Amino acid sequence: MNISFSFLANVKNNLILVLYKKFWVKTFDFKTKSSNKEYWLSMLINLFIILIFLITGDVLVRFRFFIVAKLIVNIFYMFLFSSFLPFISLQIRRINMVEKSRKWLLINIIPVLGTIFFVLLVSRPEKSKK
């Protein structure tokens, strides 16, 4: 039985994987800028991974596989913890792209309205150079 992982071999040709790889590789890069596509595709992939963890954990608990569910939850927490800094870095790079101050990240502290305002802020296109 031969299992092929050709989709992993062609990472250079797959835009989604390339952008998600940038999300992790540029963790300590706070000076450059990120495009709308890079920001939203990275967020979409993270949301998809989180949903997979949550659904898997829920199914395991429903079928009373508590030990495996606990392992999945621990892996989920490690994923959340490890993706925190790349997520902040991506937000800073996106704020650099719309040419706003990094202080605008603090608007996320306001529970609902702050997050909505931040999403609208980073959704703006890049300011054109004159």
Protein topology:
Blueprint: H1 6-9, H2 15-25, H3 36-62, H4 66-97, H5 113-122
Helix pairs in contact: 2-3, 3-4
Features:
single chain, 130 residues, mainly alpha, 5 helices
Summarize the structure.
The protein has one domain (13-122). The protein is 65% helix and 0% strand. It contains five helices and no strands.
Integer tally of domains: 1
Question: Number of helix segments?
Answer: 5
Radius of gyration: 18 Å
Per DSSP, what share of the residues sits in E-state strands of 2 or more residues? under 5%
Ends apart, CA distance between termini: 59 Å
Tell me about the largest β-sheet: none
Write down how many β-strands occur, each being a DSSP E stretch of 2 or more residues: 0
Unreliable runs, pLDDT <50, ≥5 residues?
none
What structural category arises from helix and sheet content? mainly alpha
Quote the average pLDDT: 87
Structure description:
The chain has 130 residues and is an all-alpha fold. The chain has one domain (13-122). The chain is 65% helix and 0% strand. It has 5 helices and no strands. It has helices spanning 6-9, 15-25, 36-62, 66-97, 113-122. α2 crosses α3 and α3 (36-62) runs antiparallel to α4 (66-97). The longest helix is centred in the middle third of the chain and has 32 residues, at 66-97. The radius of gyration is 18 Å and the shape is globular.
